[in-house]
Design a protein that fits this description.
CATH class of the largest domain: Alpha Beta
Radius of gyration: 24 Å
Strand order of the largest sheet: 8-9-16-17-18-19-20-21
Number of strands: 21
CATH architecture of the largest domain: Alpha-Beta Barrel
Strand content: 15-25%
CATH topology of the largest domain: TIM Barrel
Distance between the termini: 17 Å
Number of domains: 2
CATH superfamily of the largest domain: Glycosidases
Number of helices: 16
Shape: globular
Length: about 525
Amino acid sequence: MAAHQIIPAPRDYTAREGSFSLDSQTRIVAASSEAETAARLVSEYLKAAGLTVPVDASGTATADPTRRIVLTAGGPPVYDDAGFTDESYRIDVAPDVCRLDAANREGLARAVQTFRQLLPPSALGAAAGPLAIACCAIADAPRFRWRGLHLDVCRHFFPIDDVKRFVDLAALHRYNRIHLHLTEDQGWRVEIKRFPRLTEVGSLRHETLVGHFNDKPHRFDGKPHGGFYTQDELRDLVRFAAEREVVLVPEIDMPGHMQAAIAAYPEWGCTGHPIGLREIWGISQDILNVEEATVSAMEQILDELIDIFPSLFIHVGGDEVPKYQWTHSKRVQERMREIGVHDEHELQSWFIRRMDAFLQSKGRRTLGWDEILEGGLAPGATVMSWRGEAGGIEAAKMGHDVVMASNTHTYFDYYQDMPTDEEPLTIGGFLPTGKVYSYEPIPAELTEEQATHVLGAQAQLWTEYIPDRDRLDYMTYPRAAALAEVVWTAKENRSYRSFLERLAVHRERFAALGVTAHPRP
């Protein structure tokens, strides 16, 4: 059994004699200006546990005789060309002082989340009275740079407080990227001031499918479903995530999955006919046309998105684009001749290249699902490989960065236990926690040099069959805890048996946080 109960497992953990007590006499010291946000976050977490611990941000209280939690960050992060920095950290717990040290605030943010797991599990909820943590020394650093969770807020809308909770739980597991899928055929969820009808019309569908998509005839609940986030709400969400050093990666899915947008602005479609929002799941045939006015509108939407989200990567979707309307539209075929493309796959590539050029002009990088490889990959694009690993392998061999998001191991909308008829309804598939834990994000087909393009991996939560926060918890955990260890912990230090032993204690944390995790394994 591991000497610690931390998930994901740290690189090095050394147990020591004694314990560090936290009570009304404890103080939190931000020993450098870069440590202030992390210090206040520790105070916030302890307050939730029923313990008020003040923060000294003067950096001069290190000689105070009271027990101290001292946080130090060396300086501002230095980012690589993919927007990542050193996230290593150290924790040293002695009877009189607990030190959290890192080279920068991102590493310190990871130390804060490990510190939370050193507390008694009940302290993550509300624990009365003094607290204590065992003395130890921890030295830690992640295996992968991109450690992500994706959340679809379109098929079912989640209030902003639920999204904040999702971010905080991800941070607890040392994830550093939250991919927000903000637009779909069934709903548009982000305020765009230049195009107000996107939310006036596109954010509310008349009713929602009841039962599985494959059940015929289709039945509906007869209840309007909708909602969207204002730009101010999203800026507040960005601030909340930034306090935890979690980057929010927004997605505007195009040129397919755009029925809600075309319902709001029919001139963006290929038929010119008025349509409504899609009220069933699956893939809509309604896709964007490729007129210059439509392309310009998409650039304007991305421009507003960039103003809200500081993420280097902006996701433009590119998945599941049916070509029927392009093939059968005389105007689209004429437009193809005008711009000099030879088939519809090349047309999709042309469209994504336009978005890529625009994002590069704004100092951002394009991210898209692996279908953006079809017809030729945009020069600055990074591929998110979801249809297995083939797209990721192809892109990495071409010298493009890759995020592995394979539906074989990272689709958390799949069933996680058998028999499936005893589980809540899902889209299908089967992905138990053990299979998630077995995932190796670097394909064997890649050379050592090509493997450097694998930024990491990400889990997907598509919400056709996830209607509320409790179901989201149930589908996310403990599988997200397993993937967190896959992307953080060195391969040679991973043990599923050890993970399951630590998960038993981690479930107490889930209970304290009100997380309705799946009861098995």
